Q: What sequence folds into this?
């Protein structure tokens, strides 16, 4: 969440040559959760991850592992299309899990690990 978190955690943490991001939800720059479709939420999650990476001198091309939680398996196609817009031919290891999320209206949560 830009500007802070509602939980006691770091948005990203560097250790052992890697940057670990906390799970990112679809918060816009004003800190408001976007409750639209999964593709729009995915784009915001990945924009937030890109910001965290950029602040550390990294890019999406440095990402080596991504974990995704979707609230509805039927949203996988929309999620995957939006995800592909960001990663293109870069193929980090990835896990996708169907799960409930903590905030009502959130359809996707994404965390990433990048190598320095």
A:
């Amino acid at each position: 969440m830009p500007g802070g978190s509602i939980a006691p955690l770091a948005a990203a943490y560097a250790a052992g040559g890697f940057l670990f991001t906390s799970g990112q939800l679809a918060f816009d720059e004003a800190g408001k959760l976007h409750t639209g479709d999964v593709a729009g939420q995915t784009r915001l999650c990945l924009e937030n991850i890109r910001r965290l990476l950029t602040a550390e001198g990294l890019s999406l091309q440095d990402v080596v592992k991504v974990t995704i939680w979707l609230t509805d398996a039927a949203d996988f196609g929309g999620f995957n299309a939006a995800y592909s817009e960001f990663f293109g031919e870069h193929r980090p290891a990835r896990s996708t899990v169907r799960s409930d999320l903590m905030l009502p209206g959130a359809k996707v949560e994404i965390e990433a690990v990048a190598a320095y």
Summary: Residues 15 and 105 are 32 Å apart (CA to CA). The chain has two helices and five strands.
